[in-house]
Amino acid sequence: MREIQIFDTTLRDGEQSPGVNLNTNEKLEIASQLERLGVHVMEAGFPAASVGDFEAVKAIANAVKNTTVAALSRSVTKDIDRAWEAVKYAVNPRIHVFIATSSIHMQHKLQKSPEQVLEIAKEMVRYTKKYVSDVQWSAEDAGRSDIEYLKRIIEAVINEGATVINVPDTVGYLMPEEYGELIRRLKTEIPNSHKARFSGHCHNDLGLAVANSLAGIRNGLDQVEGTINGIGERAGNAAIEEIAMALHTRKELYQAKTTLDLSQISRTSQLVSRLTGMMVPRNKAVVGANAFAHESGIHQDGMLKDKSTYEIMTPETIGLKKSSLVLGKHSGRHAFRDKLQDLGFVLSEDLINKAFEQFKELADKKKEVTDADISAIVEEEAITSPQEKYHLDYFQISSGNSTIPTATVRLRTEAGVTQEEAACGDGPINAIYNTIDRLSGEPLALTDYRIRSVSGGTDALGEVFVRVQQGEISVNGRGMSTDILEASVKAYINALNRMIVKKGEMDNGNDSSREDSSCTL
Ligand SMILES: CC(=O)SCCNC(=O)CCNC(=O)[C@H](O)C(C)(C)COP(=O)(O)OP(=O)(O)OC[C@H]1O[C@@H](n2cnc3c(N)ncnc32)[C@H](O)[C@@H]1OP(=O)(O)O
Ligand SMILES: CC(C)C(=O)C(=O)O
């Protein structure tokens, strides 16, 4: 059976989803989960984009053990230098250099002739090869490029030493049969195509990213690119979990497999959803909450008689196993440690102890602590930085349908100083947020507020996601608690701390990204 390499770009194209802005700790957390999932390559970022991106790629390159770490770069020497500076620490580094090849992009965006683009592509692959042997080259907007030109430019960059040729359908324009045919022709008609591996990168503008990737695989792709949960620019990228499960479920058709540990899919999906704030729709294939739920009588009857009647894959395959050990307030460190191991976490003693304290606190409030609760606690502990300026000490709220909502909040600063304030608002959350604004002297405009429960039941752990803005800068914040007001307070304080860091970076001229990668035209 052929092996298809999975190139994950959750941390690069995935982070290009409007409204997503991950910090280095969050990216490291996702990177280590991607390694557990077993992706072949992870694209850690675009180092020339900002100091934040550069530092994150460098940190990931240092942390990741086996997986190839790729850094994206435009076809300009200063971007390539920056990409190498960040990715050189990886055990297996790759530089991914791209340039657009469609007439639309060459004429209107690059404002260069096809011959100029051809020369730049050759020169930049040659330049990148001075740094690293593993060079991936992408023809941006290949899906709308002239195939004869595409064949010429690909042949030329392979001659310069490109090891992987990526064929993006950048704007999700092609139909599966067209994308498959494009890959077939490139592989069979380019004389030196056997000297490079071919890769697909499909976008989901018409909802066909996964179908196109699969068509590419049937026609000879060796690598496919995608993101967890299909997040990414505009309508997103091909969802890796869907490609992997399609190959697994229809082995007889594709005769291809990936190196993924499929049992890590569910956890990876939940982690990416939590840290990016991009909720997974309930009916999403493979990882949606309803993907293995059966509602109607005839289906339930079939399932009770034989699961194969309505399930083409099992929830266990993607790691949704029923827990045999139920953790609650009477559980001790051994059971907790055992559970962490079972969930695949490898943590330092210090982190285990901190997570255990959080677990005990939660178990006091909740009858049964689920696997999802534990994963959420551990992941939150792992990314919480002790250097945050403000911490919640205490809050109190008075609210009702005939009183003016009033909040009192006490914050503790990193220096141990406490400050207390009170304020009113239109509702309890507004009152709390007004109070925090007064305390910090850093009024924030709330542009998004979302709440979801981590697990089921009335005592479920609630997670609040906020997005706030100050001037031109936007940041996200998250908070968790069994009390949704407390989760709301924590989310706002988290956003405030991130805003302080972001403003500090910008004052030091360290970051060019005022806004997250979203843009309103
Ligand atoms: C299809 C994709 O997903 S591609 C990846 C998209 N990701 C990003 O854009 C990452 C975030 N981007 C950024 O931070 C910025 O755009 C930067 C730092 C990369 C560049 O910023 P700036 O120098 O201010 O340029 P700006 O973004 O306004 O314009 C892009 C320039 O790069 C050029 N360009 C675009 N793609 C390429 C390429 N592959 N190779 C060479 N030049 C390119 C454009 O033609 C334009 O050039 P011009 O200034 O001569 O007109
Ligand atoms: C940079 C390339 C691979 C890309 O993201 C695209 O074309 O969509």
TrEMBL record:
UniProt keywords (A-Z) are:
Amino-acid biosynthesis, Branched-chain amino acid biosynthesis, Cytoplasm, Leucine biosynthesis, Manganese, Metal-binding, Transferase
* One BP annotation, GO: L-leucine biosynthetic process
Cite the binding residues for Mn(2+): 13, 201, 203, 237
Q: In which pathway does it act?
A: Amino-acid biosynthesis; L-leucine biosynthesis; L-leucine from 3-methyl-2-oxobutanoate: step 1/4
The enzyme's E.C. designation: 2.3.3.13
Q: Name one GO molecular function term.
A: manganese ion binding
Region entry Regulatory domain: which residue ranges?
Answer: 391-521
Q: Which SMART domains match?
A: LeuA_dimer
Which domain of life, per UniProt? Answer: Bacteria
Provide the cofactor list for this protein: Mn(2+)
Look up keyword Transferase and say if it applies: yes
Q: Which SUPFAM superfamilies match?
A: 2-isopropylmalate synthase LeuA, allosteric (dimerisation) domain (SSF110921), Aldolase (SSF51569)
Q: Name one GO cellular component term.
A: cytoplasm
Q: What class of enzyme is it?
A: transferase
Occurrences of domain Pyruvate carboxyltransferase (ranges): 4-266
According to UniProt, the reaction catalysed is: 3-methyl-2-oxobutanoate + acetyl-CoA + H2O = (2S)-2-isopropylmalate + CoA + H(+)
Entry function: Catalyzes the condensation of the acetyl group of acetyl-CoA with 3-methyl-2-oxobutanoate (2-ketoisovalerate) to form 3-carboxy-3-hydroxy-4-methylpentanoate (2-isopropylmalate).
Q: How does it assemble?
A: Homodimer.
Similarity comment text for this entry: Belongs to the alpha-IPM synthase/homocitrate synthase family. LeuA type 1 subfamily.
What is the name of this protein?
2-isopropylmalate synthase
Say which species the protein is native to. Desulfuribacillus stibiiarsenatis
Taxon lineage: Bacteria, Bacillati, Bacillota, Desulfuribacillia, Desulfuribacillales
Q: Which gene encodes it?
A: leuA
